[in-house]
Amino acid sequence: MAVPKRKTSRSNTRHRRAQWKAQVPQLTPCLCPRKEMVVPHRACTHCGLYKGRQVVDQP
Prior knowledge:
The protein is an alpha+beta fold. It has one helix at 10-17; strands at residues 28-29, 37-38, 49-50, 53-54. The protein is built from 1 helix and 4 strands.
């Protein structure tokens, strides 16, 4: 197993961790007339449509 020869400095550690950021999920409008914003590749929580097809029964 590889073992580091020197301790990683605090600066390098923080510089590496600075790249890990939370991102806002990309939203797209649903195909229904209401245009509910949904995460891509997921069924709409309002109408149950996915790619224009009804996949979830909504009351």
